[in-house]
Structures are given as C-alpha cells and as structure tokens.
Amino acid sequence: MAFFGVVGMAALAAATVCLTAGCSTLGYYAHSVGGHLDLLNSARPVPHWMSDATAPAALKERLALTQRIRDFAVTELKLPDNASYRRYADLKRPAAVWNVVAAPELSLTLKTWCFPVVGCVGYRGYFDRSKAETFAHQLRAQDLEVSVYGVPAYSTLGALPGEFFADPLLNTFIQFPEGELARLIFHELAHQVAYAKGDTEFNESFATAVERIGGTRWLNEHATLQAREDYARYDGRRRDFRALTKKYRDRLEALYEGEGSDADKRRAKAQVMAEMRDEYEQLKRERWGGFTGYDGWFARANNAAFGVLSAYNELVPQFERLFEREGRDFGRFYAEVKRLAALPKARRRAELVSPGD
To answer: What is the value of pTM for the model shown?
Structure first.
C-alpha cells in the first residue's frame, strides 16, 4: 500500500502559523484546511448508515466488517480506542488526496517540505487533483522528476480533539479486499501510537510493520477461506512488485553513487529502466496471468516513484525484529518504538538497525 500521510494535521497546524505570522504559501494551507474540513463534514457515524434504508446493503456489510476490524485493533493489537474509523464518508472521488513527490534526475532522495508539528516530509498533498498536477508542473520546470499519486487515506495522528476530527472511513478504500482493508486501518491507527517528527521512513516503516503483523493475525483468526485466498493472490502480486522494484532501485542507487559522468549515468539509467519494464512484462505473463494493475506505475516510473517505495518499506524488517525481541507483546513493542521516536534521528536509526550496540 505505501500511500499514507499526515497531510491534514500538518495543514491545520501550519495554517494557524501562517494566519498569525504571515506565510508565502498561505494558499496551499488554506486549500489543505478547507479540503480536510470538507472531508470531515461529509462523514456520518456508522450506525446512521446502518439504519439508513436508502444505503446499499453491500455498503452496510462492508461497514459492519470495518467495525469488527476496528474492535480487533483495540482488543488484539492494542491500538488506540477512540472515534477514528467509526464514521464513514463518500467523497465522490477516487482518492482522499493526491500526493506530489519529486527527486533529482540522478538521485533517489526525495525533495522535502517542512511543516509545524509533523516536521519535514517528502511530499505535498492536495485534495484537488488539478492543483496537484499544477504544482507537479512547477517542480518539473525545476528539472526534477515528479510523481503524482492518489492516496486512499491519511492520518491526523489522533491529535485533534473530539469525534468530529477523528479520521473517518472513506469510499476510497471501503471496497478493498478484506485483508487489505484491515491492514489499512491498522496502518493508520499505528500513526497515532508513535510519530517521529521529520522522519518519514521511520514513521511509515513502523506503521507498515504493524499493518503486516495485524493483517496476518486478522486473516488467520477471523477471515473466511475465500477472503484469505483472495488476499493471498493480491498480496502475492504486491510482494513480486516489491521484489522487482527493490532490485532495480538498488541498481539505480549504485549507479547514481558510482563513478562516471552525468552523461554516462543518464545512458545507463535509461538501460536499467528499459530492463525493468521488460522484466515486468515477463512477470505479468508468467506469474500474474496478464494482471495489469501495476501498468500505470511502470509506465510512469522515475526517481520520485522509487523514492516513495523506499520510504514505506526500508525499515520494516527492523521493526518486525523489534516486535519479536519484545516477546510479540504489543504494549512493550509500542513503548520501545515511542522511546526510539523521542531520540535524535541519527541515534534512533542506529539503535533500530543495530540494537544493543
């Protein structure tokens, strides 16, 4: 999945600063605050939808499923017990926000933007796709490689008070396969447990680790055989995608950091990208039965797209090992992650990667 952020919280906090102190990007913050409030205003409590005679039966079934998943998140995964994901909104669009990410021509390092509360992050989010595309055009004019992608959900870190401000369920993900729906809810709730300001890789890898651990438990303990089989196919393709893209991301990283002129690197980069797309076509034919769901990603793949994948997955194995070291006890695991999140970034990374050294 690897598509979640904290746009709303950053926008609300940053807008306050701009309104009180002046800010050259006030228009962006106003857009973010307005979009977030419109989203919240569209949400109604799940019981209201369940009692609405005009609501489709299929939607009611999915909403009931989300509430079982939500209860499981509290009782079994020890995730926050609050109003998050107890309301539902139909936004009448395919994404909650559209993120814009950018990277140099010969680097996988994402450009960052800094906000109050959340620190620096490697994306800017927009509730209007046309605004995202306009900003992307401005970045391309700076000779950056840019990627624009839809985000089905984002977290406000549980920091805003009251039921109204709690993160709602959305039409953008309500029809996900059962296993993926569970993982998304677990991922977003994990952001409310621990958050390291300005460290996207740490935050997203932690949430991804929680979603994987929790998703496996949910499927094994509560899902039907059909749901498990459907998810196995879905997740199998995703694992193949991650393995393939990591292989070529590593090659690009070595290329960019290696010797040679920029012209030589450009030629080698074009060859690497062509080989990747050829291997993807082979993967589709031989393992996926022609499944085309990742065609768009490979058609638009660039340094920015690779940078996003790294941010959401790079430290997941370290968090999974930490969970094992803490006896698979969620309370102890979360306490250790919170401790790490409070450390300076360099020390946090060193302790997570090489515990006890």
So the answer is: 0.87
